[in-house]
Amino acid sequence: MPPWHADPNLGEFTNDPRLSDANIVMIDAWVRGGTLEGDAKDLPAPAVLQPGWHIKPDVVLTIPEFLVKGGEQDDYE
Q1: Please, is 47 exposed, middle or buried when counting C-beta atoms within 10 Å of its C-beta (0-12, 13-18, 19+)?
Q2: Per-residue DSSP letters for 7-61?
Q3: What is the pLDDT along the chain (77 residues), one digit of tens a residue?
Q4: Domain extent at residue 27
Q5: What is the pLDDT of residue 2?
Q6: How many distinct structural domains can be found in the chain?
Q7: Which end of the chain is more exposed for a tag (fewer CB within 10 A), N or C?
């Protein structure tokens, strides 16, 4: 989960990722109970990843490559 920096005292926020107190108690009990693994038949199917771009970018920038001989300093600009 990414950090959530919104102040909860200022109101409710759409898509608030914070866990409820009930969720925290449930996870804490699970961890303290030995974190038993669930039934493998309940697992979702593994994701199938396709090679390449999943979202077509507007532009792809490239830079030329060059070799720097060992012992020489890289001329970075």
Answers
A1: exposed
A2: -GGG---TT--PPPHHHHHHHHHHHHTT-----GGGSPPPP-PPSS-SS--S---
A3: 556 677 778 888 777 778 889 999 999 998 998 888 889 999 999 999 888 888 888 998 998 887 777 777 766 66
A4: 8-38
A5: 58
A6: 1
A7: C
Per the domain annotation, does 16 fall within a domain?
A: yes
Asked whether residue 15 is domain-assigned, the answer is: yes
pLDDT of residue 37: 84
Amino acid making up residue 51: P
The one-letter amino acid at 40: A
Q: Is residue 28 part of a domain?
A: yes
State the Cα–Cα distance between residues 17 and 27, nearest whole angstrom: 15
> How far, in Å, CA of 18 to CA of 35, rounded?
21
Rounded to whole angstroms, the Cα distance separating 2 from 5 reads 9
